[in-house]
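Please, why this fold?
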Amino acid sequence: MPHPCLRQRALDALLLRDPPAKAQAVRELAAADAPIDATRVFATPPGLPGRPDRPLLVPPKDVPTRSPFTPEGRIALLHAIAHIEFNAINLALDAVWRFPGMPEAFYRDWLRVAAEEALHYGLLADHLATLGARYGDCLAHDGLWAMCEKTAGDILARMALVPRTLEARGLDATPLIQAKLLKAGDARAVEILDVILRDEVGHVAIGNRWYRHLCEQRGIDAVARYPELVAQYEAPRLKPPFNLAAREAAGFTEEELAWLAGWE
């Protein structure tokens, strides 16, 4: 019996509500040699994305400030990162099923991203358990998925504003968070963030690659178009300090980094 199309299976995984079940489905899908039908256009089903009843989602301003220098604050900080990684699984799966007409490598790239985000989520969930907590115990916000929904109608905007904007913010923030966690004495959390930072450089690079591919395909100046998309979709303003070395490793050009420096 033929295997279902990889994009259909990615959508099925996206609809799963239980985080461990979703992570396991993604790992299995990444290991499978499923065929890809890049021509198929799917109807958007209800229930996207699949996620558990908790955490309770509130506006970003209502998520308490997280300091790692108390047990509760460190749990809240690590929970926030776990929430980002769980949402990142959903973002990558959404790119696989939603956008037809792309080369096969596009879908393979984002499936690999989903699998690595599932690994990150699992590492953080396990570490939270050692602190007497679990994913869902703290408040969280929905900023990542909100941008996913806003860019659902334009793959160019999705590539510009999710991986190379929102996820690239992690390249900047992670070293600062690691310094605080190291000072708080949580060496294991620092190790986990080393893994996340290494992989996220690759994820942002994938976003850069496909953003430029689409710009070239459409005859668009990639550098000039980016700030227009930021304004059009009201993307969050990037804030320094910027991790220029990681951004360069992720494929941002000198011209793009110079433009970014103008935000400081």
Observations:
- The mean pLDDT is 94.
